Amino acid sequence: MSYDVLPARSLSSGASRTMVDGFGRRIEYLRISVTDKCNLRCVYCMPEEGLPWLRRGEILTYEEIAGIVRVMAGMGLRRLRLTGGEPLVRKDLPRLVDLLAAVPGIEDIALSTNAVLLAPLARRLRDAGVSRVNISLDSLRPERADAIARRSGTLARILEGLDAAHAVGFDPIKINVVLMRGENDDEVAGFAELSRARPLHVRFIEVMPTESNLELSASGFLSCDEALARVAEVDALEPVPGPPGNGPATYFRFPGAQGTIGVITPMSHNFCSRCNRMRLTADGQLRPCLFGTMQTPLRDALRRGEPLQPLIDETLRVKPEKHLLVQGSSAGSGGLIALSQTGG
Known about the structure:
- This protein is α/β, with parallel strands linked by helices.
- 26% of the residues lie in helices and 17% in strands.
- The strands form 2 sheets. Strands 9-10-11-8-7-6-5-4-3-12-13-14 form a 12-stranded mixed sheet. Strands 1-2 form a two-stranded antiparallel ribbon.
- Strand 4, helix 2 (93-101) and strand 5 (108-113) form a beta-alpha-beta unit.
C-alpha cells in the first residue's frame, strides 16, 4: 500500500454489508475520475500550460473501472459520479455508463462536466443511465467566461450543453459556480436569478487552494456567507431541502422559484463530519479524501488478479477525520497541483 503524494440495467439495493470508516461515517458514494485531461484551463483548477498527462497504459480501462465498482458495490457502494479532468474528452464515455449501470447495487450515476462537449452526447448518456448532471459555469459574460476558462468561445458551448441536458430530461441540473472576488463576484445575483424561471440549482462553491492557484485562493477568496448576503438583498431566501444528490450543499430558494440556490463551504464551514465518499483517480488510486497524501493503488493489484477488498477496507480505515486546508497555502493539499489530478 502506498500513501505517496499524487501522481441489463441494475438499480437494485440490498448489499450484504456497508462501508463505514473509522469515524462512523457510512461511505456509499464514489467519485470516479475517468481522465486527468481537460479541454479548459480554469484559473482555479489547472495551470494554463496543463500538466504532465498520464500515459494511456496508466489509465484504468472501462472494464477495470467497472470491476472495481463491482467489488465496492458488494461492500455497500450505491452512488457514482463521473468526473475528470473533463470526463467527456474521454472517448465513448456512454459505454462506461452502460457497464456501470449494469452493476448490481448501483442506484445512481451522475456526471460532472464543463458541458462544452455535452450537447451531442446528452441523449446517449441519459439513455445509458446518467440521471443527473453538474455543469461548471463561472460567468454569464462571454469575454469573462473565456478569461476564466482560458479558452475562447466557452460560454456559448456551455449554454448549448445546458440546453441539451434540459431537453433530454436530466434532473436535477446543478450549476456549479466557483466564487472569486474580483473575477465573478459581481455576478452572484445574476446567477441566483437563473433559479427563478427554470428548474436549475445554482451552487456557489468556495475556492480551495492548490499549488497552482495560491494567489487566487488568498486574494480572491469570497465566502459563501457573503455571497448569500448579496443574494438576500435581491429577494428573501427560505431554507429548503434541495434537490437529490450526494454532496454537502445547503440550499435556499426565492419565493415561488422553480430551482434553488446552494452553497458549498469547504473553507468557511467545514462539512467533513458528513463525508460519505471516496475517490478513484484515472490511474487507479483510491483516495479517502480529495486532499492530503493518502491513496491506495488498486490498478496494479487488479491487473495481477489480487483481491481488492482488503485494500478498500484499509483505505476506509485510514480515511481522515477532516481536511487540513489553509486559505492561500498549499500546506494541507498534500502537494496537489490541480484539482483535475484527483477528480475535484
